[in-house]
Write a structure and sequence with these properties.
Four copies of one chain form a homotetramer. With about 240 residues, the first copy, chain A, is of the alpha+beta class. The first copy, chain A, folds into two domains: about 10-100, Class II aldolase/adducin N-terminal domain (L-fuculose-1-phosphate Aldolase, 3-Layer(aba) Sandwich); about 110-240, Class II aldolase/adducin N-terminal domain (L-fuculose-1-phosphate Aldolase, 3-Layer(aba) Sandwich), CATH 3.40.225. Helix content of chain A is about 30%, strand content about 20%. The first copy, chain A, is built from five helices and ten strands. In chain A, the strands form two sheets. In chain A, strands 4-3-2-1-5-10-9-8 form an eight-stranded mixed sheet, with helices on both faces. The interface of A and D includes residues 144 and 164 of A. Chains A, B, C, D: Its EC number is 4.2.1.109.
Chain lengths: ~240, ~240, ~240, ~240
Amino acid sequence: MASEPPKPAENLIPSDSNALVQSTNPLHPANLICELCRGFYNLGWVTGTGGGTSIRHHEHIYLAPSGVQKERLQPTDLFVMDYATRSYIRTPTALKPSQCTPLFLAAFDKGAGCCIHTHSQWAVLVTLLVEKASGKEGCFEIEMLEQIKGIARGRGKTGSLGYFDRLVVPVIENTAHEEDLTESLEAAMEKYPDTYAVLVRRHGVYVWGDNWHKAKTMCESLDYIFQLAVEMHKLGLPWTAS
Amino acid sequence: MASEPPKPAENLIPSDSNALVQSTNPLHPANLICELCRGFYNLGWVTGTGGGTSIRHHEHIYLAPSGVQKERLQPTDLFVMDYATRSYIRTPTALKPSQCTPLFLAAFDKGAGCCIHTHSQWAVLVTLLVEKASGKEGCFEIEMLEQIKGIARGRGKTGSLGYFDRLVVPVIENTAHEEDLTESLEAAMEKYPDTYAVLVRRHGVYVWGDNWHKAKTMCESLDYIFQLAVEMHKLGLPWTAS
Amino acid sequence: MASEPPKPAENLIPSDSNALVQSTNPLHPANLICELCRGFYNLGWVTGTGGGTSIRHHEHIYLAPSGVQKERLQPTDLFVMDYATRSYIRTPTALKPSQCTPLFLAAFDKGAGCCIHTHSQWAVLVTLLVEKASGKEGCFEIEMLEQIKGIARGRGKTGSLGYFDRLVVPVIENTAHEEDLTESLEAAMEKYPDTYAVLVRRHGVYVWGDNWHKAKTMCESLDYIFQLAVEMHKLGLPWTAS
Amino acid sequence: MASEPPKPAENLIPSDSNALVQSTNPLHPANLICELCRGFYNLGWVTGTGGGTSIRHHEHIYLAPSGVQKERLQPTDLFVMDYATRSYIRTPTALKPSQCTPLFLAAFDKGAGCCIHTHSQWAVLVTLLVEKASGKEGCFEIEMLEQIKGIARGRGKTGSLGYFDRLVVPVIENTAHEEDLTESLEAAMEKYPDTYAVLVRRHGVYVWGDNWHKAKTMCESLDYIFQLAVEMHKLGLPWTAS
């Protein structure tokens, strides 16, 4: 927790350079993405190559490729994009960029430093329960759970949500192709400017934060709340007072 | 992910040779089967010596023996069969071949490179829910889940199922002896030529793929979908629109 | 799996000797009990110092002490009893013998080589569901599950139960003191001579086998079946055809 | 288990000293808190920086800071407080003290040597089920479960609860700020002088014990009982006979 990730090399980088992803620092984004993905696999968030994680490191975006087993990810498997020009400055041979890339970029455009996408079953079930109760326009809403304090109040705002605040997470409809979610994700970000997460119906959730620490801990808190909400529903316990 | 598994030795191999199962390459099938089985044990797929995994490596079939604790499997415990002649070219002393062998071979005959058999409780419960709803002739059918994209479209076809495609997995009846499943497994393969999986009532599932990566990730995606389907059923959420 | 556990020293052993529990062989019962208990902790079988394991090694009985954290057990924490005389030949200082000891001995008297006691929640729930359905005299009965094949047919009999055999596990009432279970455990063993397990109402299960491999894999198969039975009950699926 | 934690240095300690948290002894409280928190993370007790643990070591109180990922906690992240004066004698730079601190101190004032706070979902669900059944004044009450024996009888009393004893855990209402729980926690301790745990509605549980071993194993036993109680409720099984 003490050591800072190293600054990126400023000089010209060949398109296949390993220098961008090789570091002995465990907090270097190339190492961190691999370590986080191993943990996410054990949580059931990235089963069967699903889901993904991206970290912004100064002007570079680190991205896991499409279709790889997340718990086996190696730093050399990562794509690196130049954020300003949206061009890949590192492209692993024989791998394809993640279809989540435009969605991760939407989060970075809102000031995020890290974005996590999970296929958590709790997230999927919550989107189905919301639809059943409130139709396609409904949001996931819950209140009076201590874990809500784990969610930041909103971009540019200080502190976290309080116990008596209502947590509201918008739900967008899934599309045939993941990149086609971008428009509705951005629309949800506009409509709910304080949210750090958007649920995708029958698909999962996107969660972001100022840095990897905040993105990961908010993703954990939300997943905890989604799971609790499903169990509450099974037990006939309402999510909100009214 | 980068390194290729080594080619098998072409010369004559004594029936008890360790050379077939000794390699420093973690992707050698003898090492890989042991590693995969440890992971499958933690997923609850091979509890109490149940389930199994087989990999085709050029003209050799690597098979875990019958009745061993899968999380403790060692490369020297493995059987190796010559695919062309169906004769064992490596037989560990004091161990018996798996009863799943003819079922694994049925998958290899359809072009598979790896076949996984699990006793996952989600698979078993899904077979019971299908029977309850549709009788013994019913298939497991579900649609509109992002994870369906984790399943390939079919042998000789390009790409994966789409979000709006219906996933159909046939269910066959269990038999007193595992090898007696072969005929109905092959019949299901004929009737559903695009399937990469067959559920076995009150027993589990067989999943295969072109290689171990595809077999494992499809098995994970299917197990995720089976679990989600059981939870959806508990919550009164239908699997298909009609 | 290949190497044999070493024979016990035949010479006189001082009551506090470490020689009985020190071995570089991972299959020595002192090492094995510790390793098994770490695994059982992760399965939720020995939470909060509950449950236990005992192995017979020639004329010596290895026993975990009372009230220790099972996942932290060290070989030097173990008691060793001389089976013939029922006297402790190794007593760790500051530790008390397990209250399960007479129950483990009842299993050894029936020819077991290893006995496992878990507080698995699935076992507890099954005892409650049996009582609700059949009253205090009922047994847990289930049929037509592949995993039933994981249970041996009975002492002195060859092979395992078949898919069409009914698994019957007797349930005894819990008592204020664990050692007071001995009489009813022995009575259940008499009444159901083929059983390798006895459920204890609101408490857990005792499972034994000819050796540690058989006791552990049967315990896993039974726990799998108990969990499946609870889930089947939640889904309205019957355990037996009639 | 054999070695004793070392005595604290008696001499004057600079406010940022690492000596208080550096030890090669795995049972030193600074090492132990980190190890315990890693285990608690895997149990789902401290998701998303929630929950915490504190150990009293002679006249020093070791405390995890606020808002850190518990599974990544390092000894140098810990606060150390002088118990007599309630002043911090070690303050890690850039970290804030835990808001749980006054609640941990309330437990130490009752003679505890360790206090654990979890956000376990089972604890939260139990508080909601108690409210639904008995209103805000209700306690969690359950009886006739073997695992109840894992709970000590009460401060200054010998031994543990028996199988036929009723376990009673008071529930207090949650507050906007965690430190505001202190008064009602102390009131519950007064009203239920034998309890080693207090549930907090929609929040989690505080569990303490004479030392870390007792606090941890009682916390495990209680969490097991909470989970079992939720499952019993789903299956229509009552918690008490009357």
